[in-house]
Amino acid sequence: MSDWIEACTADDIDEEDVMRFDHAGRTFAIYRSPDDEFFATDGLCTHEHVHLADGLVMDDIIECPKHNGRFSYKTGQAKGAPVCVNLKTYPVKVEAGKVLIQLAS
Amino acid sequence: MTAGMVIIGGGECGARAAFALRENGYAGSVTLIGAEKHLPYERPPLSKDTMISPEHPLARTIAGEDRFAEQDIRFVAGTTAIGIDREAKNVILAGDNRLAYDRLLLATGAVPRPLPLAAASRHCACLRSYDDALAIRAQLQPGARIVIVGGGFIGLELAASARQRGAVVTVLETQARILMRGVPEEIAAVIAARHRQEGVLIRCGVAIAAITDKDIGVTITLADGEKLEADLAVIGIGALPVTALAEAAGLETANGILVNAHLQTSDPDIFAAGDCCAFPLALYDGRQVRLEAWRNAQEQGTLAARNMLGLCEPHLAVPWFWSDQYELGLQVAGLADEGARTIRRDLGDGAFILFHLAADGRLVAASGIGPGSSVARDIRLAEMLIARSACPDQAHLAAPDIKLKSLLAA
Ligand SMILES: Cc1cc2nc3c(=O)[nH]c(=O)nc-3n(C[C@H](O)[C@H](O)[C@H](O)COP(=O)(O)OP(=O)(O)OC[C@H]3O[C@@H](n4cnc5c(N)ncnc54)[C@H](O)[C@@H]3O)c2cc1C
Ligand code: FES
Prior knowledge:
The complex is a heterodimer.
Chain A: E1 3-9, E2 17-23, E3 26-32, E4 38-42, E5 56-58, E6 61-63, E7 70-72, E8 89-90, E9 92-95, E10 98-103
Antiparallel strand pairs in A: 1-10, 2-3, 3-4, 4-8, 5-6, 6-7, 9-10
Chain B: E1 5-8, H1 12-23, E2 30-33, H2 49-52, H3 65-70, E3 73-76, E4 81-85, E5 90-93, E6 97-100, E7 103-106, E8 110-112, E9 124-125, H4 130-137, E10 145-149, H5 153-164, E11 168-173, H6 185-197, E12 201-204, E13 208-213, E14 218-222, E15 227-230, E16 232-235, E17 239-241, H7 244-248, E18 257-258, E19 270-272, E20 277-281, E21 287-289, H8 294-308, E22 320-325, E23 328-334, E24 341-348, E25 351-357, E26 363-371, H9 376-387, H10 394-398, H11 404-409
Parallel strand pairs in B: 1-2, 1-7, 2-3, 7-19, 9-16, 10-11, 10-16, 11-12, 18-20
Antiparallel strand pairs in B: 4-5, 5-6, 8-17, 13-14, 14-15, 20-21, 22-23, 23-26, 24-25, 25-26
Helix pairs in contact in B: 1-8
The complex binds flavin-adenine dinucleotide (FAD) and FE2/S2 (inorganic) cluster (FES).
Flavin-adenine dinucleotide (FAD) binds next to helix 1, helix 8 and strand 22 of chain B.
């Protein structure tokens, strides 16, 4: 079975922005897209393990703050050099203003 | 076209170009010739993680052998191109082996600028390659005395790494301050203070008169007669573009292999990109520059590949680089020396950004420093403003509560 974990409230993140969420020794990034949908990925870049939440969200892309590696935060796909390993993504739902992410157990 | 594409130089730029040829649908033969025996690897970690990682550091390769095979890219390791026969359109390898090309890319990079006084010393080293890094790393023992000649990026990053390994570090700089090139004084001061806090002795305005080997270690004599003893001296006084091949082939060079905005040399079938080339920056009225920066090597490698295929696109990217020392992250977008006026934006936690504006109010560069990635997002947004030649409101730039993203929308 898998659990839904409360990560933050919807108001914590602006549209087209990202927030870091730490849970049980792991770190995630929670995104709010320009069209007001929420997404979640692993929190660290697959290139040098830097927190992606310090990066810039543009449309459906998160750009790593360190060397500008780009991922789609909706699919986790790495979009070319210097990143070549995809990001893991997690299901997200919003209930009563709370953003919940599902971590496989 | 049947001979195919040949790339000389298996560094960041050459490797990127090889893959970009395939990404852009090229089906002919692609050959990448590299003088080093390793698969193409990233150099930036060499002065950072490679020096401080507790385990034996591996070179961080740009792509594994499997990807070269899968993309049908022939990588010829440990082989130096020794000539170009432009008439026959051949690259000449040792033993007069020849390799025909339709289009050729020179991605030969740069090498450390030699210090003549250090030429005969066995205890002086330079840092450019993975092999250089391993040799230096082996000497970074606790208590080892390391003198770094040159207060530029590589020297200072190495100083930080050496301190973290317990070495006793002195940095000698002939100029009045460290990081004279490309970094504003306010930011250089933060970096210098951080090094001093860690116990690195930074001495500016000093000249070296002699370097003398001893059985163990080396004596560095300063112009005023003072003698410094070291186990190892690392020379980090800049880099020179590798242009000999281009010069011998009669291509135009001037502090780099000269190329136009399409990265084409004076021979239209030969391109040059990365650290080895001098190119015009459209952003600054075609000012001729040569960059020694990792993202530039990637961008130009990718663009050169497209133009080798006939796309004829200009290089428009804003220059950008970073440096890491201790927990501090520095990022600079644009060329700071294009600025006439500076606006400071404080981001908290000691992090700040300097926006450099031209006399007409255009944002031409932004330099930032702070812990970790604290300046990254604003530098990236500034880069987009620079690319648009925007003239942002100065009061807005100075006010951290006004998001730069909102200026981009304006
Ligand atoms: C220690 C270090 C740290 C750095 N840190 C940063 C950083 O933090 N941020 C940043 O932006 N940049 C950094 N850089 C700069 C960045 O690594 C370079 O800009 C980048 O490597 C340039 O790529 P290039 O392919 O043009 O040249 P290179 O990487 O120099 O590659 C050129 C290759 O061509 C080969 N070659 C040359 N001539 C021939 C020939 N005739 N035949 C065959 N092969 C040949 C060379 O052996 C070399 O392998 C750093 C560089 C170093 C050395
Ligand atoms: S750490 Fe993310 S691109 Fe390098």
